[in-house]
């Protein structure tokens, strides 16, 4: 490959909108997306020339369009019928390719990985990756009886990259295993039990892990919630910081009520030089990795994601560096387990070690749907631009510790560009044995982990993962069995024996000791 084809990140932009209580004009996600994209074009120093060079516009999928069946966040005020096309029209771009990206928090990093490889191969000249959420606007408008019209009729063709939802199977969904708040506690409680912590002790531990993230958010001008919360505030259960799913309080999880957007532009060194982009704007993707995990019920250990571990290791190996060589780090932080499991994979201390976020993390900086990691990437680029010989690592996660993408960024391209081959990584991972799922059965089993969601402090939904004769099963309490549901939060369920039966649709359980 000729050196001129080396991919280079030449522009980044971010924005945030804080709404005053009496505001009657609220930005749409497209407003924010366009603002971030314009900021990126300006960041390059040659906005008009760079805009004319863009041949690919990839828009991160809105939360609204990220589920089938049960929507997470609806857009009651409408949206564009062609999201990347609407953005291109606002910016006056004429790309040959419009992409509406896949679902998941891994998407921004995965797109960077892809388009850097395409630029190096001569398949893409210049790609704009951009995303936004305006859920804060939606909530403000509803509270104040506002009715903005966010519809944009653009028409035209674009590539929709979400072909199917493979995060869960029918067995898992029937038992309640879908939507993040009904899945991540399964991992967190398994890790808690392995560490020998009570719920109260683990809440204190998670507060101590997350408090430094809040400190970073407090100093970040693009943070939605720039408040330096203490470990005690994050862990303490209160009217404002209520329990949402054991063991999580509100301020331990991603906050989606944000108005945030980010954009990144990738091109080649040859194009960057021809356009006159100053070298001070350059940053490079040193290495990357993309790997998807199995469905949750098939994973050998619910307290960890082997795919996350392998992706992180692969990216470091491809960059020929160790974690001690990374100066800037952003670990996806939708839930504490996503942070602590990545720390374990990297050999880092979750408390008292290096800073684990560049933004402030999803609970405090804000969790703009699938687009969070584009903000982390923008921050990583700023860091390596400022310290040319430093490296930054961004670890992005989608689904239920399901889809992992990693990027290592550098301020200088000290070695020739080498695309990362994920084929062998995926093949080796697929060759590892999966846990067998129990057939419909009546049997004794031992609880491995559990989920208990709450509404206004009262148990709402619960289920367990259990082992029976080496196989895994999921089970729900009998309908109307409020005592068993309450017992999930009153006593330590993990390790307790249960009796399981199959009612023709799902497994049901009761504690036997």
Low-confidence sequence ranges: none
Q: Helix- and strand-based class?
A: alpha/beta
- Helix fraction bin: 25-40%
Number of helices: 15
Strand arrangement, largest sheet? 1-8-4-2-3-5
Tell me the radius of gyration.
Answer: 23 Å
The share of residues in extended strands comes to: 15-25%
Give the strand tally: 17
Overall pLDDT metric: 95
**Largest sheet data:** 6 strands, mixed
Terminal residue distance: 66 Å
Overall 3D geometry? globular
Question: Could you please describe the fold and organization of this structure?
Answer:
- The protein has 513 residues and is of the alpha/beta class.
- Helix content is 32%, strand content 22%.
- The protein contains 15 helices and 17 strands.
- The chain has helices spanning 29-44, 47-53, 83-91, 107-120, 135-143, 170-175, 184-195, 199-218, 231-235, 269-275, 306-319, 336-346, 372-386, 423-430, 482-490; strands at 7-16, 56-59, 97-100, 126-134, 159-160, 243-245, 248-249, 259-268, 284-292, 328-331, 391-398, 403-410, 443-455, 458-468, 471-477, 497-502, 507-511.
- Strands 1-8-4-2-3-5 form a 6-stranded mixed beta sheet, sandwiched between helices.
- Helix 1 crosses helix 2.
- The mean pLDDT is 95.
